[in-house]
Amino acid sequence: MGSSQSSATSQGADDGMTSCNTGVHHCSFPMYVVKVSDFLEMEGVPEPHQVLRRKGLLHEWQPSFFVIFVSHQWLGRGSPDPSGQQMTVLRHALQAWIDGSMTVEVDLVRTFGDQRHFTTSYDRVATGYLFLDWFAIPQLTERADGVNDDATKSDTARAVQSIPAYVESCDMFVALVPDLVHSDTGLQCNYSTWLSRGWCRAELWCRLFSNREDTRVVVIFSDREALYIMPMDWQRSLIADGLFTVESDRTVVMNLGERALRSKIEHLDRWGPLTDYRFHLAQEPRLLGQQQGGFSLQGFLRHFSFPSLHDAVKHEGGMTGMLCAIVAGDGDIVETLVKHGADVNARVSGLGHLGYSDSLTLLMVAAYSSQEPKILSTLIMSRADPDIVSVSESGSLVTAAWLASQPGHVQVLLEKKADLAASPPLTGAVAVSSASTVKAFLEARCDAGAVSPNGFGPMYSVSFCGRGSPDAPAILQMLLSSRGDANARCKPRGLLYKECLRARVSAALWGLEGCTVYQRQMASLPGATALSIAAVMGDQRLVRLLLEHDAEHIANDRGDTPEDLARAAGHTDLLPILSTFNV
């Protein structure tokens, strides 16, 4: 819920309400849902709670229901979707799941973690139900005539307070994030802005930290593209830093997030797995904005359930003693473990589902998880090698510099004489980091036009990976200002080129529209410019910026123009923009 006309701090609770009170969070207002089949018959601007209730289209949640929770950002102050565009994307996506023309995929282009192809059953979607805030919650902006104001406010407040319980009760969680324009502000609303909203982050955390077996989050970018959320996207989206329409909601929502996280930790402590328990326990202070580190050795061992110092040092796989100390941000414990024989250059294993592939080193994890620069410095001073390379699935030579996520990381790596030439770090940094970090690399004379050994470079990387980052336009602007070539064509080599060739076979057989998201992206890459990549990814911000910098409509090696790629990926909103500049 990206916007609401009522503050969550408003009071009013019904102690007799039992609907959805099956989990950690309290439900104080009934959970109303709409049948998917009824939703598919709707058209145009979505009707509010009171109208749907009069029409008999709302159903009170029952445990037997298969419910899809839809989290979204409002596109207007008085209505969540004034033009009905957002709901149209959702209807088409649901229908595509039902008829089998679309599945949810892993974001293989961006992943440094679990690369398994998840399987999801869509059998129950057709007979399922939708939870959408506009449908489920009485809205102050759409009161029925004669409804008492105080009663409406009370119901709305109680429903808003119950959102975490609603999330827990749902079987599937969808973030609806097509790239659209807010009707009042004129600003873009997309994945990066959804991630920035405090309430959306709260809904996300309540899903991820629920004690359900399946806590995956599906992100719908268009009616042809749905991906599972990347772990690092939520791990860097702290509720405390989120944007709130009602500022007083911040403390209330932070308390909800804290309750969800601590409940998850308690559940994992009791039921396991131990790796996940230690990971979330180590993350807890950073996620809640609390001070990190400061453990005594014995306190550290007790806190993370290590029977002995020897076990913390020699434990292999999962959350080792070193990983617990690094993620918890405790440099003193890192030094202690190294002194007692811990391998400072060990590679991680068993953390793929948490976002860290088996090939990453401890130093890479420290950089990628945005630890304080002093942790990187401590590791390197303890003889961690900053130049160790991890080869990704696409043949990229990943180093700690690639994964640097703070300007201070760049400073530490430069001070410790890390080799920034063997694998140009900007290709990775523009995908995983902030504008200030990219600026630090550019000030260190890193070349905005340098490509990696597999032919992939910063201009392509930011276009592929930027839509989850609010800094992506600023990063692209810096690259362009540093002589990045908007019209340079990508020339994949090695493993990356082999991936592209395999994908092009699929594209030749089924067309780009019939390919998976990953196949479409890889098939499009040979000969693609940054504009073509931004078009296939559906990133309006980057498409506009590139066109303003005289990016040309150059076809890729298959002959696909940026318009062709946008159309194939379902990003038809880009077509007017591309045609306007194509003169």
From TrEMBL:
Name of the coding gene: warA
GO molecular function: DNA binding
Keyword field: ANK repeat, DNA-binding, Homeobox, Repeat
ANK repeats (start-end): 317-349, 526-558
Protein name: Homeobox protein Wariai
Source lineage: Eukaryota, Sar, Alveolata, Dinophyceae, Suessiales
Keyword Repeat in record: yes
InterPro entries the UniProt entry points to: Ankyrin_rpt, Ankyrin_rpt-contain_sf
Superkingdom per UniProt: Eukaryota
Gene3D superfamilies: Ankyrin repeat-containing domain
